[in-house]
């Protein structure tokens, strides 16, 4: 009925104009791909008019590849859809000049717009497939970068730079690590912004915050993680990211409560709770001599140690009479003897009591 070569030539002129309006051209790889797409579409449409059962698989495959290329080159899928729409209108204008019977023309219109919908669907599918594939690759790239930063052995400068380049992450001078409950690392990374990258390691999200000293950055992250159990390791030189990671991960296990908690604000809790059960054994060892004393004597000893041996300050802290404090201290000295005069022993006793009497302190 009509020559596909003629249609191709006409469509290429129209599409070249449309692409120019988008700031693009038919040169380069994508241009050659679109040229092939136009030629394939024109040939497939001509065959479809002659045979409604014509196999459109090859044409769909070409436009699926075009959709993938659109994503890789940073274009929106709507741009390719607009080109298809303009091409369909131009082809329809051409068909109306052929002086065809109305019934045949209406049939061609139905075939044409159904055909264009098929190609547009194939292009959209290719675009989405490439987007999904890229998303998986991106997650893998970010995970590799973060794993390199938090692994026990620091990576070489060349390896780290290559991983950062692949993740499009400019290497900062300093970084801090946030450990957060949940496995939605990609979502948290997008919400955090400011170059923060995240991945999931051992059922928790690990976020690398570049240049955490930047004004407002940690405040923003605190708002993002307001209802999330999360801990912030210290800001460290990039080569020491592992240190910030270890502190934040251990803090996530030790420190209760929601919201972003800074490890630097809880160093005593981290030190005493680092090895499960160890502080219990430490306290039991140092407080063993006090087993014969009642709770009030233990509380008095703790208050006296905190007051650096000042009886009046101890009495005030306990809301007790100074004579009561002196009486209890005499009983304590009978048990501990010269340990109370040993500065190191006093330190150990205070730490042990702080561990066993957290609410009494």
From TrEMBL:
PucR-like N-terminal domain segment(s): 6-150
Sequence ranges assigned to domain PucR C-terminal helix-turn-helix in this UniProt record: 299-354
InterPro entries given in the database record: CdaR-like_regulators (IPR051448), PucR-like_N (IPR058663), PucR_C-HTH_dom (IPR025736), PucR_C-HTH_sf (IPR042070)
Name of the molecule in the record: Fis family transcriptional regulator
Provenance organism: Winogradskya humida
């Amino acid at each position: 009925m009509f020559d596909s070569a003629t249609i191709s030539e006409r469509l290429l002129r129209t599409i070249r104009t449309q692409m120019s309006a988008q700031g693009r051209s038919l040169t380069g790889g994508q241009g050659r791909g679109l040229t092939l797409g136009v030629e394939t579409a024109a040939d497939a449409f001509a065959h479809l008019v002659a045979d409604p059962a014509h196999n459109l698989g090859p044409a769909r495959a070409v436009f699926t590849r075009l959709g993938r290329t659109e994503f890789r080159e940073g274009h929106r899928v709507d741009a390719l859809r607009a080109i298809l729409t303009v091409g369909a209108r131009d082809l329809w204008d051409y068909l109306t000049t052929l002086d065809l019977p109305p019934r045949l023309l209406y049939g061609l219109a139905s075939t044409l717009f159904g055909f264009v919908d098929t190609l547009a669907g194939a292009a959209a599918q290719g675009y989405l497939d490439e987007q999904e594939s890229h998303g998986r690759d991106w997650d893998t790239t970010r995970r590799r970068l973060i794993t390199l930063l938090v692994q026990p052995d620091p990576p070489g400068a060349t390896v780290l730079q290559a991983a950062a380049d692949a993740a499009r992450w400019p290497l900062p001078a300093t970084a801090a690590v946030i450990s957060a409950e949940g496995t939605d690392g990609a979502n948290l990374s997008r919400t955090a912004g400011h170059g923060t990258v995240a991945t999931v390691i051992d059922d928790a999200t690990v976020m690398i915050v570049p240049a955490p000293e930047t004004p407002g950055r940690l405040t923003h992250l605190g708002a993002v993680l307001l209802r999330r159990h999360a801990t912030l390791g210290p800001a460290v030189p990039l080569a020491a990211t592992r240190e910030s990671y270890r502190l934040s991960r251990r803090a996530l296990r030790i420190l209760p409560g929601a919201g972003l908690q800074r490890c630097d604000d809880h160093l005593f809790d981290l030190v005493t709770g680092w090895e499960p059960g160890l502080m219990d054994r430490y306290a039991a060892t140092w407080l063993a001599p006090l087993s014969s004393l009642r709770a009030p004597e233990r509380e008095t000893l703790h208050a006296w140690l905190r007051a650096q041996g000042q009886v009046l300050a101890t009495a005030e802290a306990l809301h007790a009479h100074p004579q009561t404090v002196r009486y209890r201290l005499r009983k304590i000295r009978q048990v501990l003897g010269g340990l109370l005069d040993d500065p190191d022993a006093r330190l150990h006793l205070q730490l042990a009591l702080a561990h066993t009497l957290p609410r009494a302190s």
